[in-house]
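Backbone-to-sequence.
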């Protein structure tokens, strides 16, 4: 049952001066109203991947909220076990749609990680890597392009073959070696370098929209960005790509770097406001989930609060925009012409696209419109695949368990194509296909790439 007073009753934080500095920071940063809104009803338990894997109460949203509140109330210290449990959460937010009290669990887990990170004692290598990536690379598009060019050189010059052949890769943990094998081809030429900053609509213009190109997306998945722009153009949208946009800040927010996430959000809201667009299009569920909450992220900033409130409601996933506002092109599965039956396709939901952006039907509507294709719903397609940003790197054991179950369901569909709407999910499913022996009969693709390649009128794809 719902708690009608949950969103209106203001609850005071306990007036406690913790001896433990991290506990004091947690008390200051946690939204105490959200902590006390949790009714301990248990509706979140079957929705939580880590609880489903372990059956342990601390591995559930309800359990983690209880731990947060115990620290805030001075009943326990935030010891290493507490910190590990906060980091063991995938952040998939499947608990939120299941919660009758509308507890904002995603915000709580980010607040907890932010407080923990303020006092974290990382080793020198980890501290250096975090500083390099979060501050030195992700916020700077030119450095990302340099990284893309360097990765492309490694992949295409023969260095990758040498690294694998000489056994150098064996110096890295097994899960990192496996992930390296399924990395797509990198590039230093992103969507702006290939299409410019404005791409016209085909036919009568429906609306002027802006593409959020992302950071990793524009280096490792630049083709998907290009295909997104061209697909939107076919559907009647003029597409603007603001050059001054930066990383969305999602990886920062999930990793306890909330101040840096806010800095990036400030740059983005200004860049897109100046672009004069009706919608801000995302093709990555993980990015979109933070973008759509920029209003919350910047709510405490009097200078940028209004810009955040302007920005957030205009963020939309590409599939949803195509279905609700666009002229959807005709799609046809070419492989079906030579087959005795339609080509089977299936879909793995992006957790953040489904649970935060509330967009699960639009991708399915598009897939069902492909002539010559049969869409087969995967069992538990709404369950996390184990990618969760960089979770499959930091928590490989749990990610591997979750992926194993996911591949059981994927294989049961007998699908030729397994489609996703998020780069992390795409890499995780590629990893699953490789690891679980399905690479000869199944291919993972981003839904945009799949649809773009299947225009019924192939001539319409010319630049």
């Amino acid at each position: 049952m719902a708690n009608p007073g949950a969103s209106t009753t203001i609850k005071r934080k306990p007036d406690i001066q913790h001896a433990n500095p991290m506990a004091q920071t947690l008390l200051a940063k946690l939204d105490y109203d959200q902590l006390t809104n949790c009714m301990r009803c248990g509706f979140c338990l079957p929705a939580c991947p880590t609880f489903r894997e372990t059956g342990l109460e601390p591995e559930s949203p309800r359990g983690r909220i209880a731990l947060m509140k115990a620290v805030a109330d001075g009943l326990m210290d935030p010891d290493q076990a507490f910190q590990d449990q906060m980091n063991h959460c995938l952040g998939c937010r499947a608990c939120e749609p299941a919660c009758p009290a509308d507890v904002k669990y995603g915000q709580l887990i980010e607040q907890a990680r932010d407080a923990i990170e303020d006092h974290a004692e990382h080793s020198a290598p980890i501290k250096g890597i975090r500083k390099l990536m979060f501050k030195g690379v992700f916020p700077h598009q030119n450095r990302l392009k340099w990284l893309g060019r360097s990765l492309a050189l490694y992949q295409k010059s023969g260095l990758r073959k040498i690294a694998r052949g000489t056994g150098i890769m064996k110096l890295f943990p097994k899960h990192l070696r496996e992930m390296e094998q399924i990395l797509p081809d990198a590039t230093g030429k992103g969507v702006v370098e290939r299409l410019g900053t404005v791409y016209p609509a085909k036919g009568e213009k429906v609306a002027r929209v802006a593409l959020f190109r992302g950071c990793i997306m524009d280096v490792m998945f630049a083709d998907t960005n290009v295909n997104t722009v061209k697909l939107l153009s076919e559907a009647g949208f003029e597409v603007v790509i603001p050059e001054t946009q930066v990383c969305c800040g999602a990886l920062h927010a999930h990793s306890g770097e909330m101040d840096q996430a806010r800095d990036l959000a400030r740059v983005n809201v200004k860049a897109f406001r100046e672009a004069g667009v009706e919608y801000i299009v995302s093709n990555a569920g993980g990015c979109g989930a933070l973008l759509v909450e920029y209003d919350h992220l910047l709510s405490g900033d009097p200078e940028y609060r209004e810009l955040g409130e302007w920005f957030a409601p205009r963020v939309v996933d590409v599939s949803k925009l195509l279905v609700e506002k666009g002229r959807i092109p005709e799609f046809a599965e070419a492989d079906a012409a030579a087959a005795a039956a339609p080509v089977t396709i299936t879909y793995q939901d992006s957790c953040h696209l489904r649970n935060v952006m509330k967009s699960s039907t639009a991708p399915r509507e598009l897939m069902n419109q492909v002539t010559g294709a049969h869409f087969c719903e995967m069992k538990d397609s709404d369950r996390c695949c184990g990618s969760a940003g960089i979770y499959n790197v930091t928590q490989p054991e749990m990610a591997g368990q979750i992926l194993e179950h996911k591949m059981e369901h994927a294989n049961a569909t007998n699908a030729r194509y397994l489609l996703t709407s998020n780069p992390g999910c795409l890499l995780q499913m590629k990893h699953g296909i490789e690891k679980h022996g399905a690479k000869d009969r199944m291919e993972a693709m981003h839904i945009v790439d799949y649809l773009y390649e299947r225009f019924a009128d192939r001539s319409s794809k010319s630049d």
